[in-house]
Design brief:
Elements lengths: L4 E6 L5 H12 L2 E4 H14 L10 H7 L5 E6 L4 E6 L2 E2 L7 H10 L3 H14 L5 E5 L2 H5 L5 E6 L2 H14 L6 H17 L12 E4 L5 H30 L1
Parallel strand pairs: 1-6, 1-7, 2-6, 7-8
Antiparallel strand pairs: 3-4, 4-5
Helix pairs in contact: 1-9, 2-4, 2-5, 4-8, 7-8
The structure holds 2'-deoxycytidine-5'-monophosphate.
The site of 2'-deoxycytidine-5'-monophosphate has 14 residues, from helix 2, helix 4 and helix 8.
Length: about 240
C-alpha cells in the first residue's frame, strides 16, 4: 500500500499522541504533534513577557512568529520525538501547566494558525505522516486517507494528564487539571478559526476503556480495511479497462 496521511484529532489529554506515536513507529511514518507547535509559540510569548497577567496583545504575538524555528527530532535514547525551538529542545518546558493555561487562547489567533498550518502541510506534503491535533482532518489535511476522532471520559483524561504531570515532578491537584482541560476543550471547540470538530469522514475512537495495544489494533484494522478497499478498487478499474 502506498503511503497515506493519518490525521488524529480530539480533545485534550485523550491519548492522541500515544496512539499516533505507536502507529508512526509501527508504519515507519513520521509523527508530528501539532499541539507542541502551538505550545512553542506560547512558551516563547511567556519567555519574552508578551503574555503578562494572563493577557497579551495579538499584534505582539503575530510579530514574533518569524523568529520561531520549529523542528522535531527523534531521541532514540528516550524514545521521544523531541520538539526543538530555535535549536533547543523544549520538550519539558512546553508541557507545564503554565503553558497549558495559555495555549488555547494563543491558538485562537488566525495568523498563528495560518503560520502553523503552513509548516504542518510542508512537513506532510509527501505523505507517510501521522499528525495529531485539533484541526488536522478538517483544515490541515482535509484529504487525509484516514481520519480518527478521539475521545474519552473526562475524569479518565484528567487522571492520565495528572499522572503525566506528577511523573515530571509538577505537583498539581486533580481539580486544577480538570479545570484546565475543561477550559481548553471549551476554547478549542468554540473558537472562530478552525474549531475542534469531528470531520464528517472521521472514525470515532473512544478509548475510555481501551489500553494502548487495543487502540493500536483498532487503528491498524482500519488501515488494513483501507488497503483492502484500495486493492479492490484497483482490481475493479483494471477489470473494466480490459
Ligand atoms: O495537543 P495539545 O494538548 O498539546 O495541544 C495544546 C493546545 O494547542 C490545544 O489546547 C489547542 C491547540 N491546538 C490547536 O489549536 N490545533 C492543533 N492542531 C493542535 C493543538
Amino acid at each position: 500500500m502506498s503511503k497515506i496521511t493519518i490525521a488524529i484529532d480530539g480533545y485534550s489529554s485523550c491519548g492522541k499522541s500515544t496512539v499516533a506515536k505507536a502507529l508512526a513507529a509501527r508504519l515507519n511514518y513520521a509523527y508530528v504533534d501539532s499541539g507542541s507547535m502551538y505550545r512553542c509559540v506560547t512558551l516563547y510569548c511567556l519567555d519574552k513577557g508578551i503574555i503578562k497577567d494572563h493577557s497579551f496583545l495579538t499584534d505582539e504575538v503575530i510579530k514574533i512568529l518569524p523568529e520561531l524555528k520549529l523542528s522535531f527530532q527523534f531521541n532514540a535514547k528516550s524514545g521521544i520525538n523531541e520538539t526543538f525551538m530555535n535549536g533547543k529542545s523544549v520538550e519539558k518546558e512546553i508541557r507545564t501547566l503554565e503553558v497549558a493555561g495559555h495555549v488555547s487562547a494563543i491558538s485562537t489567533i488566525k495568523e498563528v494558525r495560518a503560520h502553523m498550518v503552513a509548516i504542518q502541510r510542508e512537513i506532510g506534503k509527501n505523505k507517510g505522516v501521522v499528525m495529531d491535533g485539533r484541526d488536522i482532518g478538517t483544515t490541515v489535511f482535509p484529504d487525509a486517507e484516514l481520519k480518527i476522532f478521539m475521545t474519552a471520559e473526562m475524569d479518565v483524561r484528567v487522571q492520565r494528564r495528572l499522572d503525566e504531570l506528577l511523573s515530571k515532578g509538577e505537583h498539581v491537584s486533580f481539580e486544577k487539571v480538570k479545570q484546565n482541560l475543561m477550559e481548553r476543550d471549551h476554547v478549542d471547540t468554540h473558537r472562530k478559526e478552525s474549531p475542534l470538530v469531528q470531520a464528517i469522514d472521521a472514525i470515532v475512537l473512544d478509548n475510555t476503556e481501551l489500553d494502548k495495544e487495543q487502540q493500536l489494533q483498532f487503528v491498524i484494522q482500519l488501515i488494513n480495511d483501507l488497503s483492502l478497499s484500495q486493492v479492490t478498487r484497483g482490481e475493479g478499474q483494471g477489470a473494466s479497462e480490459k
